[in-house]
Amino acid sequence: MRNRKRNLKKSLSHYQPTDLRLRYKLVQELASEFAVETLCSVLKVSRTAYYRYLRGDSYQLTSEKAEYQQLVEQTFAKHKRRYGSRRITAELQEKGHSVGRCQVRTLMKLVGLQAIQPKSFVPRTTDSTHGRGYWPNLLLNQPLPKAPNLVWVSDISAP
To answer: Where's the HTH-like domain (predicted)?
Structure first.
């Protein structure tokens, strides 16, 4: 038994269920053999959250937070996934809602919303589809110049 306590982290490190309820149940099952504090640290679960789970006080969204979550989702969809937590917070505050950026960020994480970076604007200055002709490169087949000021080049690309 002493040996198991020493190697607890090694034996449970591969077992990390994504559902928190499964982690809480595992802590509950192993609580008779190991310290709850150790189990919670190994399974990366907050001790406070575990005890709240035991009491039945699991995290539930209040009606106000549920409303904010709906507003965040609507704003995010309205701006075609381009707005992050800062811009959504600014827009909701303009509309008169008292919501902070960290709260908006948390609500976005809960739903799985992540803003996308739009493609950067690249100006297209050359119009190669014009009907006018172009001059060929006359220096292409010539030898390299031996001294300065032997070859001059200019370009007028104005339409």
So the answer is: 70-119
Total length of the chain: 159
Q: Are 126 and 159 in contact (CB under 8 A)?
A: no
Rg (alpha carbons) of the chain, rounded to whole number: 32
Four-residue CA torsion sign, 108, 109, 112, 118: positive
pLDDT in tens, 8-44: 555 555 566 667 778 888 889 989 998 999 988 888 8
Taking the CA atoms of 13, 18, 22 and 27 in sequence, report the sign of the dihedral they define: positive
Q: Which residue has the tokens 């390299």?
A: 144
**CB-CB contact of 11 with 4 (8 Å):** yes
HEC string for 71-136: HHHHHHHHCCCCCCHHHHHHHHHHCCCCCCHHHHHHHHHHHCCCCCCCCCCCCCCCCCCCCCCCCC
Q: Tell me, what DSSP letter sits at residue 32?
A: T
